[in-house]
Design a protein that fits this description.
Blueprint lengths: L1 H51 L1 H20 L4 H29 L5 H26 L4 H10 L2 H10 L7 H6 L3 H11 L3 H14 L7 H10 L4 H7 L3 H17 L4 H14 L5 H29 L1 H28 L7 H32 L6 H30 L1 H22 L11 H4 L4 H18 L10
């Protein structure tokens, strides 16, 4: 009898263990599958937007996400819920690609950084609303709470699908399609003076390789639908285009390796690990994360066109590295302390650095990734180049969100954040060396910024600093060596 009882206990423990592992896998898959499916949207959105236009692509993105939200809200089982999240993921891929591209092409150079950062503030505001809704809907029975939470996503996407009809089409896309008069009409709506609109139209035509009377070339461009772009991007790029591709794809690659997805998705688990026990306290702290994220992205929007992309991005990474190192240290001390006897300083440090990390990310790395990667490509390559960047962004997002639980169980939660800190150092090195400043440059001039490599830019910068110094004496002496 004793042996049979032991066997039953082993079977029960095995069943419980399998259930826990299955639950962890289900949570990670559900969290990350949206980003995997966003690959489908992002990789097709560039070609679609080259064919049908930026405005209709935004409307298509909203309709796809609307369908996914309805499917998730009405899902009778986990498989349907997963299918709805996949459909929504395709819409997310479309939206993440087209929103910053449209903003970059419609904005003037002096406010382009702010406008192309708006998608990030909208994402952050959506996350904040999700946290607040989660707090309020937690009072409903579980079977209704999660359905309402997922189904409510249909409302803003329905509003966008209709509201986009009042937005103008991208003047740059219209020029490529041979519709210069319509492009001029749009430019006159967004420019301060008619002369400025005429000048911008001439610049766009020159960048597109179209003379004022080159109707045949415009017709050929209109019929191409963006064909041959991937060959020019990856198979036979010119040196400036190669540098642009490395910079634009690299900045997407590193964005989620800073650990933001782990903090946003799993902040309740982090707060629990830091000693916040009650459900309401965890939800309230999570709402605080959303408020912090939104507030600092708004700050970034105000600063990005004033102080430049590089200073803001590198300062952001410095804050991220310090915050992640302190968060890792605090969580390590808590994890190694007896239950409910963690040092107060470690608990305070862990909680505070979650907020400083989110603030640091939101003031630079978050919004500037989208602004920078959408503005550096030449017109003919912009939509499809941006689509590849979004695809990489979603792969990294999915990789972090689907593996974070397994990662921190393997190397401890403190060790996971030490790892993210090291990756943030690599991101800072990459951006410092390979991503030149684009602040205030018209889109048609940014390709020229990448005509020189990092060493040549450093030499030119040193020469520019040295020249005034050598001429400061007022004489016509020889320049300093």
């Amino acid at each position: 009898m004793g042996e049979e009882k032991q066997n039953d206990e082993r079977k029960n423990k095995y069943a419980v263990g399998c259930s826990i592992i299955g639950s962890i896998i289900s949570v990670q898959v559900l969290a990350g599958i949206l980003n995997v499916c966003a690959l489908v949207g992002s990789l097709t959105a560039g070609r679609v937007s080259d064919c049908v236009g930026r405005r209709l692509t935004i409307s298509l993105a909203a309709c796809i996400f609307l369908a996914g939200s309805v499917l998730m809200g009405l899902a009778p089982n986990f498989a349907t819920l997963l299918a709805g999240r996949c459909v929504a993921g395709v819409g997310v891929g479309y939206a993440l690609m087209i929103a910053p591209v449209y903003a970059a092409e419609i904005a003037s150079a002096d406010i382009r950084g702010s406008l192309t950062s708006l998608p990030e503030i909208c994402i952050s505001f959506g996350i904040l609303i999700g946290y607040v809704a989660n707090y309020l809907l937690a009072k409903l029975p579980l079977v209704y709470g999660w359905r309402a939470m997922l189904g409510l996503g249909a409302l803003p996407s329905a509003a966008l699908a209709l509201g986009v009809l009042a937005m103008p089409e991208s003047p740059r896309w219209l020029v490529v399609q041979g519709r210069a008069e319509e492009a001029l009409s749009v430019l006159r709506r967004v420019c301060d003076r008619p002369s400025e609109a005429d000048a911008r139209l001439a610049e766009i035509k020159a960048a597109a390789g179209l003379a004022d009377d080159d109707g045949a070339a415009a017709a050929a461009n209109a019929g191409s639908g963006g064909k041959g772009v991937w060959r020019e991007l990856f198979l036979h790029p010119t040196p400036p285009v190669r540098r642009i591709v490395i910079a634009a794809l690299g900045i997407h690659f590193f964005q989620h390796l800073t650990g933001i997805e782990a903090v946003v998705l799993y902040s309740p688990r982090i707060f629990k690990a830091a000693g916040i026990a009650s459900r309401n306290s965890v939800l309230a702290a999570t709402i605080g994360v959303g408020v912090t994220k939104t507030a600092f992205i708004l700050t970034a929007i105000l600063l990005v066109d004033r102080i430049g992309r590089r200073p803001l991005y590198l300062s952001s990474l410095a804050g991220i590295i310090a915050s992640l190192a302190c968060l890792g240290m605090g969580l390590t001390v808590i994890e190694r302390s007896p239950p409910h006897h963690s040092p107060a300083w470690a608990v305070v440090l862990a909680i505070a650095t979650v907020f400083t990390f989110v603030a640091s990310f939101s003031i630079g790395v978050g919004p500037i990734t989208w602004a920078y990667s959408s503005e550096v490509y030449p017109l003919r390559l912009r939509a499809q180049g941006a689509s590849v960047g979004v695809a990489i962004n979603r792969v990294m997002n999915a990789g972090v969100s689907m593996t974070f639980v397994s990662l921190y169980k393997a190397i401890t939660i403190g060790g996971a954040f030490f790892l993210f800190a090291g990756l943030a150092v690599a991101a800072a090195t990459f951006f410092y060396l390979l991503c030149p400043e684009t602040q205030g440059k018209p889109l048609e001039e940014i390709e020229e910024v990448f005509s020189q490599g990092w060493r040549a830019r450093r030499r030119a910068s040193a020469a520019a600093v040295e020249m005034p110094a050598s001429g400061g004496g007022g004489g016509g002496g020889a320049p300093m060596a």
